[in-house]
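Chapter summary example.
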Amino acid sequence: MLLTTAPDTLPETTGVEILNLLLPHHRTTGRLPAFQPPTGQARLPAEAFPRQLRRIADFVREGAPIAFTLPAFPCKSPNPAKALGHLPDMGERLSLAFLDTLCQEIERIYPPGAHVVICSDGHVFGDLIRVPDDHIDAYADELRALIRESDLRHLSVFDLRDVLGDLPHDTKRAHVHDRHAPTLEALRAEVRTDAPTLALYRGITRFLVEDTAGFTGTRSALQRECRRRAYGVIQRSRAWGELIADHHPRAVRLSIHPQPVGAAKFGIRLLDAPDAWTTPWHSTALRGLDGTWTLMPRARAQRLGRLVHRDGRPSHFER
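The structure predicted for these 319 residues follows.
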């Protein structure tokens, strides 16, 4: 059904059609590819996501482009066994193209279209994940260049420089944390009582352990330190989410983390991966013999394929 106008009488119907375009990419927990219900069950309907439907319907009612915000694309993992370097590569290139294509699909059924604001959050917790701030700046600058050079007109990048200009990075982090982060006590209590928050805490702890290089202590000491840093990452991530909401109060909030059905955030999978937590910045892209792409750690990808360069830099692997 092609809508030539934004009809005042059908915002909910149009909202369902738009959300149906996102549902195949819903990021859930576990190892199910994309959005796939358990065997024998029908796919969940768009009505199972009332918060997203309400926000989309509000844009449709006004005939306005739908705004999505996606806190993501922070920086590359510092672990050379996972990523090819500190700049975006084929994983980011494909993911950005996917997001722009998704907006094009929305535009075909809803002419006012859609726009995704990529809220690049590397500086928010760069000190906790042990990535240099100049690497984070270079990564975000390259994202903008990729969007511009590839004419991905439905995407833009938003980061702390758009909020706090050229203040020192530590000052920016302190500003965001002090004004928006939950207390450590409140977060610890939530981890103890809320299953999704516990899963997030464990997932971030695992990433921090994997990404830590040069640690001279014991494995148990490293895990203790990473558990402590994981709380800080979640605090800063929550603070960044609050800041984004202040600057983009009406937007439909997307997330690269798995989200329960009906949550305030809609989890979205950018590329195929065997693990629901895998992202382009924690992995490398491998192109299979059939032309499909999969994300995996660099160490595994280089056992399966040959390294391909693009524009003079390592880009991806091919079988």
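To summarize the output: The CA atoms of residues 94 and 271 lie 8 Å apart.
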